[in-house]
Amino acid sequence: MMAAAKRPYCKPPPPTTTTTAITSSSGQNHKRLRPSLPAAAAMDGGMEEEAVAPPPTTTMTTTTPPQPLLPGLPDHLAQLCLSPLPPRLLHAVCRPWRRLMYTPSFPPFLSLYALLDDADADAGVSFAAYDPLAGRWDALPSPPMPSPPPMLWHPSFLARRLPLQSVAAAGRLVLVSGSTQSLHPALSRPLVFDPAAPTPRWQLGPRIPLSPRRWCAAGAARGRVFVAGGVGAGYDPAVARSGATWDPAASPPPAAAWEPIPPLRDGRFSRDAAEAVCSGGKVCMVNLRTPGAKEGAVFDLRAGRWEDMPPGMLAGWKGPAAASPPDDGETIYVVDEERGALTAYDWGADRWRTVAESDRLKGAAEMTVAGGKACVVAPGGGKVLIVDTPPPPPPPAARRESWAAPPPPPRMWEVAAPGGKRVVSLHVLPRMTRPE
């Protein structure tokens, strides 16, 4: 009996390698190597010893169709179905939904934006946004700083920071004024960052009226940037009494010019960088951020005139101040730096009520309010304290009629600053868009 003829045996070639790019949370590209099997092995799940390998010059590629947001629906209809869901739920379900949350077409959630200082070296200022859902800080592009650039510290002021004043208005971060090392105004035009743009970047706004300035009162008023007072290269009474507003949402930013407002009664708002906070159609500010005898002023946006600050408001203004946005009542909040108390102003009673009190709030440097929360920079800038801001209590008559227990104290938690950085100032704005 003849022996059976053996089938020819072809030794398979050694596995090749393909490179897959993996993007880490820090934004750096890392490369991972993995073996690439021939097409037959990919389909069958392995290679038999007797299988014949394809020629070396043959290349076979397979494409995986993109995963739909919701099976059976086009993505544009799926977006309409997903947009009412809470952002935290969307972030927890799957990767396609997380990617959708950061696209320009999807309703944005709120994030914390910080101006940062290097804790170890004179590396200049930087900016970052804290994503509360991902729990991480994302660096912003560097703004096109002029030469010489703004300074945060100066040898002549050993215990005092030179402010780089920033404002959150119309969903944008706006740098308004700053000081150079020679103590001259650093910004002749504001710098504007729109986090919701398809490609977030900084743009230049129109020139500030009369003269560039520093140590002014700056804030947001009904979606517009508001500045008043300040000092230029030298003291000028006209600049110290002047004020103006500007809409940063104009496209492009330089298209809209600053609109002047009636001058201040005097030039006392040129001694320090002050917050200007808007509540009830009125912009309120004091002339000093440091402890001491303060003077206040109120600008009525509807009437277009300056008024005296109510005595109760002035007496309780003992630290950094911020106002909640219009859709959250425009309540003015102040942190009493000495007492460590977060207080809210009542226009009707001309008094401040205590919202929260803690030793962790003592010495607060900056604050912002949005989304039912007050964000306070702790002393030293190493962390941000987040405090719930509950609604105002009902009137006494309503409290007598209800048998409800008093509300619990507001929650308070911390967010650490990015490694090696200190938080100098902060704002709440919509989250940044991310590339696909």
UniProtKB/TrEMBL annotation:
It comes from the Eukaryota. InterPro entries: Kelch-typ_b-propeller. Gene3D superfamilies: Kelch-type beta propeller. Residues 1-35, 390-415 are annotated as: Disordered. The lineage of its organism: Eukaryota, Viridiplantae, Streptophyta, Embryophyta, Tracheophyta. Signal peptide: none annotated. This is F-box domain-containing protein.
